[in-house]
Amino acid sequence: MQSFDVVIVGAGPAGIGMALELNKIPGLKYGVLESGRIGESFRCWPAQTRLITPSFYSNPFGLADLNAVDATSSPAIFAGAEHLSGNQYADYLTFVANAAELPIACGCKVMQVDPDPDGGFILLTEYGKLFTQFLIWATGEYQFPDLKPFPGGHWCRHYAQIEDWQAMEAGTYTIIGGYESGLDSAINLLEFGHQVRLLVRKPTWDLPDVYDPSQTLSPFTRERLRKVESSNRLQIIYDADVVEVTREENGNFCIHTADGRRWETTHPPILGTGFLKGGGARQITDLWMWGDDDHIVLSDVDESIYAPGLFLIGPQVRHDLRIYCFIYKFRQRFARIAHQIALRLELVIEPSEKSEDGTWGPFGNSECCEGCEC
Questions:
Q1: Domain count, the chain
Q2: Which of 243, 271, 299 is the last residue of a domain?
Q3: Residue 131 needs a FRET pair 20 to 30 A away by CA distance; which of 202, 264, 314, 371 works?
Q4: Mean pLDDT, consecutive 10-residue segments, the chain of 374 residues?
Q5: Cβ neighbours of residue 156 under 8 Å, at least 6 residues apart?
Q6: What pTM was computed for the model?
C-alpha cells in the first residue's frame, strides 16, 4: 500500500491551487487524485456558460487575476478572454498543473475513506488502497446538484444536466430559481429564441444592501439581465415558492407554489435551485461536523472537527458570515493549510510573497495600505 504525507482529492481550482502551495514544501510526499480529468466540473458546464468573475492580467501591479489559482498565472492571458468558458478554464488549470509538474492521477476515483486508528487515513481507490497522514478534500459542488429540492423534482431537468442551450427544442420553458444558474438558463434560452417563464422567490438582482456576490446576483449577470428583461418572451413571476411538480394525465408538467398558484408546461421545468449543501464533502459525510444550517463546521485552519488531519477547501468553506464560494475567496485558504501541515510535519515551507499568515492580501500583495476601508 502506497503511503503519502498528503493526498488531495479533486483537481479543480481548489485542488490545483492547493497542490501549488504544497509544492513549496521541500521533502513533502503528496499526490492529487481526480476521478475524471483536470477541471472536470468545468468541462461539464453548458457550452454557453461563462465565469461570472472577470479575468484580467494585473499581476505586475500586485493584484492577481481574480480567477487565478496562484499569484503569477492569469486565465485572461492564457485564454485571451475576460469571462472564460468552462473548457477554457479547465484548459488553463491543465496548463498550470503540467507546467508545475504536479503529481496528479486522473481517472482515479476515491470510493471510501476510513480514519486509521493510529492516525491518518486509508483511501480505497479504483486502483487499490493507499495511506495518507493528511487528507485535503477538494471535490467542489457542481457535480453534486440538488435534484430533489421538493417533491416531484425528478420530473425536472437540473441546470447541471444541460450540455448546450442551443440544442433545446423550440417552445416555452419554465425555470425555477432566481440566482445565477436560474438567470443564466433564462438568458441563454431567450438568446436562442425561446419563451421563458422565470419563477423566483425574490429578485436577487434588487438587493441594494447586500454587496457580497455570494448572496446576490453578480454584476456580470445583472448586465446580461438588463439586456433581455424588456423582452416580450420573458415572464418573471415573483414570490413563487415552488413546493411540488407533478405530471398530469395529458403528459404536461404542473408546477405548484405554496400560495396555491400553478402553471403547466409541455417541457420539463428547469431547476436553477442550486447544489447540495456541502457538495462533494457529502461523500464522506460522517467525517464532518454539520451545523444547524446544514453547512460544515470547521476549525480556523479549515480542519474537520471530527477527523483531525482532514481539511476542506473550495466553495463549501464558511466561517461565520464569510462565504468562500468564489475562486478569489477560497484561494486565500491554501497557504494557511499548507503552513499548518508543514508545521505538524516539522518541514520548512519556502518563503512566500504573501502576508505573514500566508493568505492573499486584499489586493493580492503582501501588505495593505494604512487606513483602508476594504
A1: 2
A2: 271
A3: 314
A4: 96 97 95 97 97 91 88 94 98 98 97 96 96 98 95 97 96 96 97 96 77 86 93 95 96 96 97 94 96 92 97 94 90 93 90 47 46 45
A5: 147, 176, 245, 253, 268, 269, 270, 271
A6: 0.92
